[in-house]
Amino acid sequence: MKKGFRFIVKASMLLIGAFFVFSSGFAQQFQTLDITNQLNPTNSHTHREKCGHVILEQKMEKEMGYFGSKPFFENWINDKIEDQKDTPQILFRANNDPILIPVVVHVIHNGEGEGQGTNVPVSQIEEQLRILNEDFQRLNADAANTPAEFLPVAGQINIEFILAKQDPSGLPTSGITRTAGSKSTYDPNTDASIIGQLIQWNPDEYMNMYVVPLVSPFIGYASFPVSDLPGLTGAPTSAITDGVVIDYRYFGIGGSAVSSSRGRTATHEVGHFFGLRHIWGDGGCGVDDFVADTPLQDNSNNTCSANASRFSCDSNDMIQNYMDYTPDACMNLFTQGQVERFEVVLANSPRRVTLINNRATEEPELAENDLAIARVLEPGEFECDPIINPSIEVLNAGQNTLTSGRIELRRNGTVLESKRVTFNLATGERFLVNFNEFTLLPNTNNIEFRITQANDVADLTVANNSRTINPILEQPVDLPYAQDLSTFPAPWAISNPDQLTTWEKRNLTISGTAQDLVSIRHYEYEAPGQLDYFISPIINLAEYPNAQLVFELAYAPYDQAGFTDGLIVAVSQDCGNIFDIANAPYDKSGVELQTTAATLDEFIPSNNTQFRTELVNLSEYADLGSVRLAFISENAYGNNIYIRNIRILPNEEFNYSLSVDEVRAPTPISDGALEVDSVALTNTGNLPINSFLFSTTNNNANLRTYVASGATIQPGQRFVITTPTAASTGKNGLKYVASNPNFDQNENNADSVMLFVVQSETTIPVPWRQNFNNATVLTPWQTINPETDAAAWSVSAVSNGEGPNNVAELNTILAGRSYWLGTPMFDLSVSRQASVFFDLSAGQVSPSTTLKVLASENGGNNYSEVWSVSGAELSTVSVGESNPNSAGDYTRKYVNLSDFAGTGKTQTRLAFLVEGGNESDSPIYLDNIELFLNANPEPVIPAVGMSVVYPNPARDFFNIAFNLSDFEDVTIQVISSTGALVQEIEYPMTLNQTYTFSTQLFSKGVFIINISSNTIRETRRLIIN
């Protein structure tokens, strides 16, 4: 049945699209899987979310897998609508009797008095229920404002929301509870479960409506219904979030509500509660809300005016619909198609069908004298101490005030104590009853509390008179402890709430050796959402405060989206009766739980490589003393989970750890052409790693998170990971974080590096000269301190010449930092040779302080060191600091760049880099940086604005060198002694070039050289021998 069903639904899953996007990472054969959208699902919408429904729907899909997905629900509801059309007599709107829905309003407040602030008054609650009833029944006064074109489809349902008349114990209630919350505000992204855990009445019997202070921009949200298909009747984990949550300022009218509230936020959210989606489908014109009589709409509407209208998707938008984001004053209708969905959900959906006209809508029928056992406090199902101090809580479930009761405590049918208790309890009031301590027997302990009298007469309401519990006396274990499966499950325990599939011992052949394992068969477990517990013996953390749980896990997900099983390791401090799942130290599902390739077949491990070592450090629970641990499986009808080699160690012997060593790409100054970032890491733990999380951000935004997997990295091994680049044009503050090696969830296993880079595609013509005199900033040159973005190179004014005179200055040098000064890109394909000269001035620096010249032939994406000096060789003066105003403190330096010139070298870039320094270093100055299209270390340089012809007389060749202030087009004429023009050549973009002429083109004798440009008119006499 399972395989056939799954291949049927696979086609539907294609409608959702893939959850993951793959990108290649080649170093160490790692692949990087982008999981950003899974971690930040709410980023998929551009409109400002007021309603948190989408968040709750995504949580439901995560918890229930495919069974909680939109395609699954819509397929189900469409089938039910068709069935309903074939049997119209079941339609609620054909029934004159109203549908009564019991509502309990939970006011979660911040401690104010009733009627103040978040603790809203009763009148505000009553107004909200009135508005709900009018809106759903279409008795709202503003129904008259529905546009004429939408009147034919306007719908109403004969439903009435009433405050519950009975509480879960069957006692009279006002239908309103008030609870001081644990937080001042609540976020649907993180706090939906917290709200339900504060207080919730059985969602099978009550529509739980919470009035809370929500974080902006949210003003409400609601849980979505689920289907009634087989296998889903076991309450899924999303039951704790079932209900409607409204911000107190948008609940009803009056009281603490804002003036613009007309109670339509609750109308909107109750629409979700009964199966409606946003009218624009949470998408554009191509996304539907699955209701035929609502027009397509490209986005939400957020405005309201006297004649409000909006046009999109080739039709008028139904902005008056309660399922839009229209302000309350302009909302006024549901459609008949939406009502049709209400009816299907109310007739079929779990936790909706059971609301209709149930006992909570009726006044309770109470016996005259009825004392009930509300709960057993001690003993629990598990006990760590044989001495029991029995305690129960009783309540008055009858009409009369109770002043006494008689209660028996029995063990294995024998009365240990019969106790008459006196009190003064009005209906619904509770009382704590303690009994004499007793000692548990070594074997069987059937403990019963039985009420026999109320007000000294027989209590005849037997249904709530007795509670039985069978406590098991647990024993602590010494550490180190290794589980012995020969006595499975003892000394461990199994809790199987639904009494179906649960943890079991299996013997399998793994890598040729028969091994015992603990497993649970989720592959055939058709009860999504169920939890099964495998509970450890007692561990005394007071004796072992740094204890560590170690086990090996094997899990291959079912190879279809939506069947996502989970595994939790939780801690109990009450001997295993209650486990703190919400704060579990280990909680994995999906790709985090996966240890081997996904499969469509039932997973049965056969090789040791399919197992991964898992660690749970217990030091944070040391102050709890004796605790128990539980492996808790979360079933999603996916695939089998296997555990072996379970050990509890006295100390944290093993650890997963990664260090982020360096960013290899991008470089601090580049053109941004690389499509991937490259980062080097080291496995600094003592276990092999084959997967981890890797995150990138740019300028504290654009978070991308990847799962890196595919290679095994041994302890101490260094490796490189590549991901799509996070950088963009301009300055980038890049952060790379490696965390959760092997998806380890213990603390202190993450490392990060921050790198600041500049990306620029700016180019300059060649040759070039930079004397920093024409501006007070370095642009188009770039400077950066990659480690912290601290001040780096800057333009500084000096007075060592006539007119404006600036230099590049590195004033402050700190330990552990580097300082880059980069040129724009330039094209050296025009010359087979090149060189750069620069003036350097520096005072005393530490021996490790180094100035390097780096060259790149690809825009700065890779650099090679072409020159460097350190320590005393860097200093240009013998003592103290150099004087940037003194020409004598500068030294002219030469660097040959011919390796970066020639064919194809069109994107050359230079960088001047200072590194290895510290706070004691003197400032460093650079000036008169000049690129030549030759590699002559001693070039002939004319005076500024002049030219020189040499050698003269010439034999084999002669040169004409220039030193112009800026680029000019130069014309050179060679004229014979007879006045004939022998040669004329134009040289555009001349700056500091030296042009060479062969004398073989000329006869021997005397020639006149005419040189002309915008600023030069020179004539030279040349002799050729």
TrEMBL record:
Segments crossing the lipid bilayer: none
Record's keyword annotation contains Ligase: no
Peptidase M43 pregnancy-associated plasma-A domain ranges (all copies): 200-346
Alphabetical keyword list: Disulfide bond, Hydrolase, Metal-binding, Metalloprotease, Protease, Signal, Zinc
An MF annotation (GO) of this entry: metal ion binding
Top-rank taxon: Bacteria
Stated family: Belongs to the peptidase M43B family.
Record-given protein name: Por secretion system C-terminal sorting domain-containing protein
Organism for this UniProt entry: Algoriphagus locisalis
Taxonomic lineage of the native organism: Bacteria, Pseudomonadati, Bacteroidota, Cytophagia, Cytophagales
